[in-house]
Write a structure and sequence with these properties.
single chain, two-stranded antiparallel sheet, 69% helix
């Protein structure tokens, strides 16, 4: 077990290692923890698939397009949708309503809370998690996964049509 003196020394070394990265403190330890969870989760899913002699899912071009569109829409729903804001609330602060059912929020707190807040407000950051989930779900339940992905792809198409309609009216 680490002694308080050793812990203090390790913190000083870590602070020195990351000094100069940014003028504003960043939750680098939280980011590292999140990256570790993603890496361990992905490696575990691959190991389980290998252990069960499951073949890696064979993704067709249509799967790539479908899952790509679905991942895009899911990432917007998870990170921006007003209806999913209660799930983000412990990690973020509401800034403003941006229209089309979306909100702008910013991470709050510090450390892991702030790092999770950054993750759940960034559609680009959450996309690898969601895309990986779709691929591994497709290996276990391809029909159900394609159905789910299809629903979100349809939602993406509908959103596009709604935006085009609003522009045409203007």
């Amino acid at each position: 077990m680490a002694t308080p003196r050793k812990t203090t020394r390790l913190k000083k070394e870590a602070n020195g290692l990351f000094a100069g990265y940014s003028d504003k403190p960043k939750p680098l330890g939280g980011y590292a923890a999140i990256a570790a969870v993603f890496t361990v989760g992905l490696a575990s899913a691959l190991a389980i698939a290998e252990e069960n002699d499951d073949e890696a899912p064979k993704l067709t071009w249509s799967d790539l397009v479908l899952f790509g569109i679905a991942t895009h829409k899911l990432s917007r729903v998870v990170t921006k949708d007003i209806v999913t804001s209660p799930f983000r609330a412990p990690f973020v602060k509401f800034k403003k309503y941006t229209g089309a059912g979306e909100v702008e929020e910013e991470a709050r707190g510090e450390g892991l809370q702030e790092a999770v807040g950054d993750l759940v407000t960034c559609p680009y950051c959450i996309a690898p998690w969601l895309g990986s989930a779709l691929v591994f779900a497709a290996a276990r339940a391809p029909r159900a996964t394609r159905l789910l992905a299809g629903i979100f792809a349809i939602k993406a198409g509908s959103d596009l049509m709604n935006h085009l309609y609003v522009r045409a009216k203007e």
